[in-house]
Amino acid sequence: MAMLTAKLSCSPAATASLGRRSGPARRAAAVRASAGSYADELVSTAKTVASPGRGILAIDESNATCGKRLASIGLDNTEVNRQAYRQLLLTTAGLGEYISGAIMFEETLYQSTTDGKTFVDCLKDQNIMPGIKVDKGLVPLPGSNNESWCQGLDGLASRCAEYYKQGARFAKWRTVVSIPCGPTALAVKEAAWGLARYAAIAQDNGLVPIVEPEILLDGDHGIERTLEVAEKVWSEVFFYLAENNVLFEGILLKPSMVTPGAEHKEKATAEAIAHNTLTMLRRRVPPAVPGIMFLSGGQSELEATMNLNAMNQSANPWHVSFSYARALQNSVLKTWQGRPENIEAAQKALLVRAKANSLAQLGSYTGEGESDEAKKGMFQKGYTY
Amino acid sequence: MSAFVGKYADELIKTAKYIATPGKGILAADESTGTIGKRLASINVENVESNRQALRELLFTAPGALEYISGVILFEETLYQSAADGTPFVDILKAGGVVPGIKVDKGTVDIAGTDGETTTQGLDSLGSRCAKYYEAGARFAKWRAVLKIGPGGLPSELSVKQNAEGLARYALICQENGLVPIVEPEILTDGSHDINACAAATERVLAAVYKSLNDHKVLLEGTLLKPNMVTPGSDSPKVAAQVIGEYTVAALRRTVPPAVPGVVFLSGGQSEEEATANLDAMNKLSVLKPWTLTFSFGRALQQSTLKKWAGKKENVADAQATFLARCKGNSEATLGKYAGAAAGGDAAASESLHVSGYKY
User: Fold this and answer.
1) What 3-state DSSP class applies to B14?
2) Residue A32 DSSP symbol
3) A30 and B250 in contact by Cβ < 8 A?
4) What residues of A are in the B interface, CB distance below 8 Å?
C-alpha cells in the first residue's frame, strides 16, 4: 500500500473558505492512497460544505425527474424550462448565507444564466461549492429480492476529471436499500461496495464524494428495525471505504434519518427520530468525517426541518446538516408556477426554507410562521428518483 | 435487534463511562504467573505466591494512588487474594473507587502457515468463567490480541480477520455476563518500519475490529478500546511526542465511533516517561476527540516502583510514593496537563521497557 505524506490542517472544524488554512501549525499525517495530490483540497472543500449554519441544496434531478416537477406546475419538460427553473434557484441573492453546496445534474453544470454567466460562477460568487451527480441510476440487482443496485463506475474517473475541470468540487452517488425487500445481505454489500469504489475514484480526481445509501421510507416497519438496518448498512459502508483507502477527512455522508416506515401505524416524534438517528451515527461514524448532510426522502418541508433541529440540540462530533431537494424546493415550485412575475416571490420562498434549515442546523429553529404548504408530506410509495 | 442489549446493558454503559473518567486510568496488573516471575526475577525476588501478593498489596494500598485509578486489571489468582490483614483485594479496590477487572484470555498461539503471526485462545467456557468472575466482583475484562508489522504486508489479512473475530466473540460473551470488554488489538512495535507504516496498519486493524464488533452486535457504549499508540518501529529513529500524539489521534478519529466512551492505551515497551509524555501530547491537541484518551499501563506504571521496592519491606513506603507519582503524572497527562518528569527524577522512569518479540 503506497502511503503518501501530506500536510493536513489539524484545527477543529471551523468555517474555512476556499484556500484558507485555519489553525496553528499544520501536521504531517499519513494520507490514504486515493486522495493523492488532491488531499488538501478535498479536506478544505469538505470543511467548507460542512460550515456552521449551512447545508446543501440538491437540484440534481435527472431530466426525467425534473420533468415531473415541471409537470406538477403545468410546464413542459424542455431544456429552456429546466434552465429557467435552475436559474431562479441559483441566482437567489443571499442564498450563500444558508447554502454551502449545490448538487447539479450534468446538464446544469454546463448551463449559464440568460445573461451568459455560468451557473458555476453564480455559485462560486456566493461561496457555494458546485457539486455534481455522477451515478447512472438504479437498475434491478440480479439474484436479489427485487432490489436495486447503482450503476456508474465505468468511465467514472474521466467523468469526474471533466467535471472538476468544469468547476465541480464534490460529487454525489445515490444507492438505495429497501427494508420491505429484506434487505438481503447481497443488496447491502453491493450498495456499500459500489459507494466505496465511487468514493475512491472521486477523490482520485479531486471531487469530495458524498456517500449516500438511502434506506427507503417505504414499508410498515417500526423505528427499531430501521435502526438495525441503518447500523448494518453503515458498518459495511465504512469498512469498504477503509478497504478502498478513502480519506475520511475528505468525504461527506448523506444518510436517511432513522424513522419508522411510511406505512407504520405510529408516527415518531422529532425527538425520537433524533435520538435514534444520533444513536446510529455515534455507533458508526468516525469523527474524522467532517459532515453529515441528511436527505429528506419524502418528509414534508416542516418535518425535515424539525427533525434536523432536534438533532442539533447539543454538540455533535460532526457537522449535522441537510442536503434537501424536495424539502427545499416544494414551496418554491408552487410559488413560481412557471411565471416570470413570480420569480422574486419564489426566490423569497427558497430563502425562507433555506434559513429555516440553517437555524435547524444550529439547533435554533422555532417554527414560527410556517405555511400549510410546508407541512405537506411528500412521500410517494415506490418513488423513483 | 441493532446492538445487543441484554440484562446488564445499563450497568455496562455506566461502568465503561466511569472507567473512562478524565483524570483517571487503568493499572494493568494482570501479569500471568510466568510473566510476573520475570518482573520479580529482575529485582531478585522469588516467584512465590506471597511475593506476588506482596507486590500487588504494595500497589493497591499506596496512599493517594487509587484516586487516579478507575480500574485495575487482575490476573485470576489476584482476584481471589487478600491483603496481609485479610481484606480481599476486590474490597480494597472498590472502597477506593476502583473497578476490578480480569484478564480472561488464555494467551497466544501461532497461526500455522503464517510468518509467526498469532491468534488468541480463550473462548471455550468463557461465558461461565465471566459469570464466575462477575460473582467475585469483577466488572470488566481484558483480552489481548497480538499483531505485527513485517515484510510481505504483515499483518496479513488472515491474521487481522482472525484476531478481529476473536475479539468480537469475546466482547459479546463478556457483555452477556456483565463484564465490560476491553478490546485490545496490540500491534507490536518490533521492526524498522516508520510511523506511516504503523499508522496504516493501525487504521487497517481498527477498521476490521470495529467491523467485527458491529457484525457481532456488540454494544459499543459498553466497551473500551486498548490500542497501541502510533509510533515508529523499535528499530527506527524516535520521533517527538507531539508527532506520536498527532498520528495516534488521526488514526483513532478515522476508526473509532464516538459511541465508544474511552480509549485506554497500552504502553507496549515505552519507558514510563515516554508513555506519559505521549499520552499528554495527545490530550493537548485541539482537534475533537469524542472519547477519553487515557492509560492502561502495566510496565509503564510499575517499573520504577518495582525497582524501588526490590522486595524489601523497608522500601514499601518509598516504592508507594514512586507509584503515586507515576499515577498522578499519567492522570495529568489525560488532561493534557503533564508538567514533565519531576526534578531529579528516576533513571528508571526513562528506561526503555521494550523487549523484542515480547511474550506477555
Assistant:
1) helix
2) -
3) yes
4) 1, 3, 5, 8, 10-13, 23-24, 27-30, 224, 227-228, 231-232, 235, 238-239, 242-243, 248-249, 279-288, 317
To the nearest whole angstrom, how far is the Cα of A109 from the nearest Cα of chain B? 32
Contact with chain A for residue B286, Cβ under 8 A: yes
Which pLDDT score is estimated for A58?
97
Longest dimension (CA), chain B: 58
Identify the weakest region by mean pLDDT among A92-101, B92-101, B330-339, B342-351: B342-351
| Cβ within 8 Å of A, B 195-214 | 195-197, 199-200, 203-204, 207-208, 210-211, 214
Residue type for position A2: A
Q: At what angle do helices B272-284 and B299-309 cross, to 10 degrees?
A: 150
B304 — alpha (psi -120 to 50), left (phi > 0) or beta?
alpha
H or E segment and range at residue B274: helix B272-284
C-alpha cell at B101: 477487572
Rounded CA separation B138/B247 (Å): 34
What distance in Å separates residue A189's CA from the closest CA in chain B?
Answer: 13
The DSSP secondary-structure symbol of A112 reads B
pLDDT tens digits, B137-174:
999 999 999 999 999 999 999 999 999 999 999 999 99
The answer to whether the CB of A364 falls within 8 A of the CB of A356 is: no
C-alpha cell at B191: 521492526
Residue B334 C-alpha, separation from nearest chain A C-alpha, in angstroms: 19
Active site residue B184: yes
Reply yes or no on whether the pLDDT at A11 is more than 60. Answer: no
Report CB contact under 8 Å: B254, A235.
no
Measured distance CA(A338)–CA(A342) in Å, rounded: 8
- Alpha carbon distance B240, B246 (integer Å): 10
A3 contacts B199? CB cut-off 8 A: yes
Query: Is the pLDDT higher at A27 or at B129?
Result: B129
pTM: 0.92
Is A227 within 8 Å of B2 when comparing Cβ atoms? yes
Q: How many angstroms separate the Cα of B36 from the Cα of each of A4, A229, A291, B303, B307?
A: 42, 47, 48, 12, 14
**Which band of pLDDT confidence, cut at 50, 70 and 90, is reported for residue B233?**
very high
First-last CA distance in chain A: 38
Mean pLDDT of A62-82: 96
State the alpha helices, DSSP H only, in B230-269: 241-255
The residues near B125 (Cβ < 8 Å, ≥ 6 apart) are none
Residues recorded for chain B:
360
User: Is the predicted pLDDT of residue B72 greater than 90, yes or no?
Assistant: yes
Q: Which residues of A have a catalytic role annotated? A: 212, 254
Q: Exposed e or buried b for every residue in A339-365, given b needs 16+ CB within 10 A?
A: eeebbeebbebbbbbbbbbbbbbebeb
